[in-house]
Specification:
Layout (H helix, E strand, L loop, with lengths): L2 H15 L2 H4 L3 H8 L4 E3 H4 L3 H4 L5 H8 L5 E3 L5 E4 L13 E5 L3 E3 L4 H20 L10 H11 L2 E3 L3 H8 L5 E9 L10 E10 L2 H9 L5 E3 L2 E7 H10 L40 E5 L7 H6 L13 E3 L7 E4 L7 H10 L11 E4 L2 H31 L1
Antiparallel strand pairs: 1-3, 2-3, 4-8, 4-10, 5-6, 7-8, 9-10, 11-13, 11-14, 12-13
Length: 390
């Protein structure tokens, strides 16, 4: 990377870290700023993975900061602070739109992974052949191929930079979060791109400008994408008891809400969950804007951890959350300590605290996890009964 390109990349990172969208939810930066007259030492910024990849030189970061309009460099050139305080009436929802129809493609897998999956599929097909029935006979190769495509995990064929470029005509794009479906390791379901993202603008006025022009649609990767205000989308999902779908919200009249349905009369059957010790990291003070994908991404590159096997107990907007693993790994306590110290980040922000659950705390966690699993199972069964009655 050339000197100029390094400086430009650093300017983008600095602008993001000190932006309203990030700074308001980054407890690590807020705490350091409070204890240092609003300044963040550049040596602290150099601990951030995305900055460390670009440079380890304080002077290089300081020079880049001189060209960023939302920050001020200290006189000694060793610290940076925001140029202006975050507005008291800041509401990220008033600055955000949800985008749909972002192009995706089948995940490109390594050769060894493909070989393993082929062997697994061959074994399944052999077992299926033994129990073959007339059901599904006559289904053509095209239909079979279509089913395979539906099951194939997806990845985005465009980048965050592409999304930013598409919406920059309406104003500054402060933050883009690509959306993924949840991985369910026990069902061999891996995370998959769902063709949707959140775009947060630098101001409410810029979001309004985009919303007013939404009938024009935007082109991302050569595909026309729809979008709408996040509040409109959230309200629709809340009214219709949806779990944050990846389609635009549509007005529906006269549709009953499942929230009005009577509670289940079936007894709750709690079955203990199989687990090993030292397999859960509990987090407190989750940064605003955290989600399951950001939490999983924080563990990428940790030796002994398969990101797709991680189960995340967390819902957007909650203060606390946890991550559990199929098996423990040698550095699990060191990893928890690094999160607690701010050396490892979630959504580029420091968490309030992190620790490996042990003893009574661990047993309490697994007891509650078993209860929640039973609740979900009962709810699923209740929905099945309603559908059969219709």
């Amino acid at each position: 990377m050339t000197e100029d390109s390094t400086s430009i990349a650093l300017q983008e990172r600095i602008k993001f870290f000190f932006s309203d969208a990030n700074f308001r939810s980054d407890k690590f930066m807020q705490n350091e700023a409070k204890s240092n007259d609003g300044y963040i030492e550049i040596t602290s910024l150099l601990k951030f993975a995305t900055v460390k990849k670009l440079t380890t030189d304080v002077k290089v970061v300081a020079e880049a900061a001189k060209n960023v309009d939302n920050v001020v460099l200290s006189k000694d050139g060793e610290a940076i602070r925001r140029a202006n305080p975050i507005p008291d009436n800041y509401d990220s929802n008033l600055r955000t739109v949800v985008v749909f129809g972002i192009p995706t493609a089948d995940v490109k897998k390594k050769e060894e992974e493909v070989k393993k999956e082929v062997k697994k599929e061959v074994k399944k097909e052999e077992e299926k052949a033994k129990e073959e029935t007339k059901e599904g006979e006559g289904e053509g190769d095209a239909a079979a191929e279509e089913k395979k495509k539906e099951k194939a995990p997806q990845e985005y064929s465009v980048t965050i930079a592409d999304v930013k470029a598409a919406f920059s005509k309406y104003g500054e794009v402060a933050l883009v979060r690509m959306r993924y479906s949840r991985a369910i390791p026990e069902k061999e379901i891996v995370k998959s791109a769902i063709g949707s993202c959140f775009v947060e603008f630098g101001s409410e006025e810029e979001q309004k400008k985009a919303v007013e022009a939404k009938d024009e649609k935007v082109s991302i990767g050569g595909v026309e994408c729809e979008y709408q205000p996040i509040r409109e989308w959230l309200d629709f999902n809340k009214r219709n008891n949806n779990n944050y779908n990846n389609r635009p919200a549509k007005k529906e009249e006269g549709k009953a809400n499942d929230d009005d349905a009577p509670a289940s009369s079936d007894p709750l059957k709690i079955e203990p969950l199989e687990h090993n010790s030292d397999c859960v990291i509990a987090f407190t003070g989750m940064p605003e804007g955290s989600d399951r994908e950001a939490i999983r991404a924080a563990f990428e590159g940790v030796e002994g951890v398969k990101v797709d096997d991680i189960y995340v107990d967390y819902s957007r907007g909650e203060k606390d959350g946890s991550v559990r693993f199929k098996e423990t790994f040698a550095s699990i306590k060191d990893v928890a300590a690094k999160f607690a110290a701010g050396e490892m980040l979630i959504a580029e922000s420091k968490v309030g605290g992190a620790k490996v659950l042990e003893g009574e705390e661990e047993e309490k966690y697994w007891t509650e996890a078993a209860r929640m699993a039973a609740e979900r199972k009962r709810k699923f069964n209740d929905r099945g009964k309603k559908q059969r009655k219709r």
